[in-house]
Write a structure and sequence with these properties.
Blueprint (H helix, E strand, L loop, with lengths): L22 H7 L2 H5 L12 H10 L7 E6 L6 E4 H17 L7 E5 L4 H12 L3 E5 L5 H10 L4 E5 H8 L11 E5 L12 E2 H6 L15 E7 L7 E6 L3 H10 L8 E4 L6 H13 L3 E5 L5 H10 L4 E4 L1 H10 L1 H5 L8 E5 L5 H11 L3 E5 L9 E2 L13 E2 L5 E7 L7 E4 L7 E6 L13 H5 L2 E2 L2 E10 L5 E6 L4 E3 L2 E3 L1 H9 L4 E11 L3 E10 L7 H15 L7 E4 L13 H9 L14
Parallel strand pairs: 1-11, 3-4, 3-5, 5-6, 6-7, 10-11, 10-12, 12-13, 13-14, 26-27
Antiparallel strand pairs: 1-2, 8-9, 14-15, 15-16, 17-18, 17-19, 19-21, 20-21, 21-22, 23-24, 25-26
Length: 592
């Protein structure tokens, strides 16, 4: 069917009226300083993310309002009001204090979407302790790598995950002083070398005053994957809470009466910024489903939980589309009023599907771990161009740049002013949630900037109306089901298999999840490239990396293409896989 290139909207179509209806006017009037006034702050100019998200509401009009609502297949729903959440997080902060864990110390959480995870994250923030959420589907290797890079002192996890994924590498994580376990059966745990969290919580006071953090004090450490080397720890500060608040307003249109559902896992940055912090800042009721994706369940939750604002991801939308119209037809969503998506390109088809099936178009938005919050978005009162990520939010100045590389000079960039020309997406520094460094890697951090321009590593175009269009990544990082995967981390684990001589990993385009991880492997002498060995390497990768990161496909090659300097040419592997032109092969070892 022929579709229009723009979905026209007017503010009067929206209920409640959107926060902003004049794009240029709002951007002109906006300042981050003014935005901060929406928050309470701590005495003496302090700012604390956990305090703003929870405590600010816990003694006010919203104290009995439900903050978090947990649902699961096998357990009754659990509601936590803002005041109950304040008491629980106070207890957790006191537990940390009791263990001698304080401001600036580092805590990791590794769990499914259980209440204890949310309590630990918010309680640690109130205590000034820096939080790193880990994805619970990670295998032992990515977990240990990140805890070691971050020199984590505390880990909160479940007894089951501990036994399956942490225990065997515990000795190799010397910084880890305390492991706090949640019993998955609701009882208590007695694993040697760990503490039972429920017991500690029972014995802790439920009164606590947030530690006096300043806007520039570290709050969160999010690991993200690069092309080479170990994962990068992007450091975020308490001041980021101003971006979380402003974007919750401008991009997600959150109002306190909303029932909101962010489907992202807190192991990834969206699940923290918009699955925990932003909704609480706006005093909404946030749904947390403990189960994995299931089309029927998701349609039912949207309906029965009367979700009004839904923030999800393209892979999930494509899976709903695949589940067919008949399933969707069995449901009605009268409460739903705004749907947004992030993490990977959202096909125009999916935007239209939203309009036709849910009755609402899907609003794509763009950001990344380093930006800490939404930067570019389609928003309630403005026209959508399906396929575009939207326009920069108030307080955000975006542009497209090209790289000028002159022999012997440091690389520089130049603005591309002409519309519709592809280049690297860049953002002018200065928004509060911008990362403040890659942990222990100042050089890598510096490389992200040219003057005050932050270079995102994404290729994009801007059209004449100021809408941005995603083109691709400038590097080899893989996006699978919305999750960023570093090829190097996968290659390193493959290389540990006794039969593997070399490994090269690429993202292979996939209609459902964007890209799947595909590995090319050459074998050591004496090993035959047969099916049994392929399965064995696959099993090794899954065991070490976890299903979310391990390759879905492995192909054997006699040798892998390398540059003269010895780097595996992933770009060439990908071009060959896709039957595309091989491009410049002048640096290929033994090549032209
Ligand atoms: P992460 O740091 O894991 O959140 O991944 C960030 C990356 O995801 C970005 O740099 C983009 O490559 C990709 N991404 C995020 N949002 C979008 C979007 N709306 N459209 C296309 N790609 C996106």
């Amino acid at each position: 069917m022929e579709r229009a290139s723009v979905i026209h909207k007017t503010a009067s179509d929206q209920r409640p009226p959107p926060y902003w209806t004049d794009y240029e006017g709002e951007r002109r009037a906006f300042s981050w300083e003014l935005a901060r006034h929406a928050l309470q702050g701590l005495p003496g100019g302090g700012l604390n993310m956990g305090f703003e998200a929870v405590d600010r509401h816990a003694t006010g009009a919203l104290r009995d309002h439900i903050a978090l609502r947990f649902v699961a297949r096998q357990a009754p729903a659990l509601d936590l009001s803002y005041s109950a959440l304040a008491r629980q997080t106070n207890r957790f902060a006191n537990v940390l204090q009791g263990l001698g864990v304080g401001k600036g110390d580092r805590l990791f959480v590794l769990a499914g979407r259980i209440p204890e995870l949310y309590v630990a994250v918010l309680g640690a923030l109130k205590n000034g302790t820096v939080v790193t959420p880990l994805f619970s589907a990670f295998g032992p290797e990515p977990i240990a790598t990140r805890i070691n890079l971050g020199a984590g002192q505390v880990l909160v996890t479940t007894d089951v995950l501990y036994k399956r994924k942490v225990k065997q590498l515990r000795e190799q994580m010397p910084s880890l002083r305390h492991v706090l376990l949640v019993a998955e059966d609701g009882g208590s745990t007695s694993e040697p070398g760990t503490l039972d969290l429920a017991t500690l919580m029972r014995n802790a006071s439920d009164e606590f005053s947030a530690v006096a953090t300043q806007p520039d004090d570290p709050a969160l450490l999010h690991f993200t994957s690069g092309t080479t080397g170990t994962p990068k720890g992007a450091q975020h500060v308490h001041g980021a809470v101003v971006t979380h608040y402003a974007t919750g307003r401008y991009a997600l249109d959150l109002h306190p009466e909303d029932r909101y559902w962010c489907t992202a896992d807190p192991g990834w940055v969206t699940g923290t910024s918009y699955g925990i912090i932003a909704p609480l800042l706006h005093g909404v009721t946030s749904l947390i489903d403990r189960e994995e994706f299931d089309a029927e369940r998701w349609y039912s939750l949207l309906e029965q939980e009367r979700i009004s604002v839904w923030y999800t991801a393209p892979t999930a939308i494509r899976m709903l589309m695949k589940a067919g119209a008949a399933l969707a037809d069995q449901h009605r969503w009268p409460a739903l009023r705004f749907v947004a998506s992030v993490g990977e390109p959202l096909n125009p088809e999916a935007v239209w599907w939203g309009k036709e099936v849910l009755g609402l178009p899907i609003h794509d938005n763009w950001w990344q771990t380093e930006t800490g919050g939404i930067m570019i978005a389609n928003t309630p009162a403005f026209d959508i161009k399906p396929g575009s990520m939207g326009r920069p939010l108030p307080g955000i100045e975006a542009c497209i740049v090209e790289h000028l590389e002159a022999e012997g000079e440091p690389p520089r960039v130049r603005l591309i002013d002409t519309p519709d020309v592809e280049g690297e997406l860049a953002l002018r520094s200065g928004w509060p949630s911008m990362f403040r460094g890659y942990l222990n890697n100042e050089a890598r951090y510096r490389k992200c900037f040219d003057g005050d321009l932050y270079l995102t590593g994404d290729l994009a175009k801007r059209d004449a109306d100021g809408y941005y269009w995603f083109v691709g990544r400038a590097d080899d990082v893989i996006k699978s089901a919305g999750h960023l995967i570093g090829p190097f981390e996968v290659e390193s684990v493959l290389m540990e298999h006794p039969a593997v001589a070399e490994a090269g990993v690429i993202g292979k385009p996939d209609p459902m999840v964007g890209e799947v991880v595909k590995a090319f492997v050459s074998l050591k002498d004496g090993y035959a490239p047969d099916e049994a060995l392929r399965l064995d390497i696959m099993a090794h990768a899954r065991k070490r990396l976890g299903a979310a990161v391990a390759p879905k496909e492995i192909a054997f090659l006699p040798t892998l293409p390398r540059t003269r300097s010895g780097k595996i040419m992933r770009r060439l592997l990908k071009a060959r896989e896709l039957g595309l032109p091989e491009g410049d092969t002048s640096t290929l070892e033994g090549g032209a």
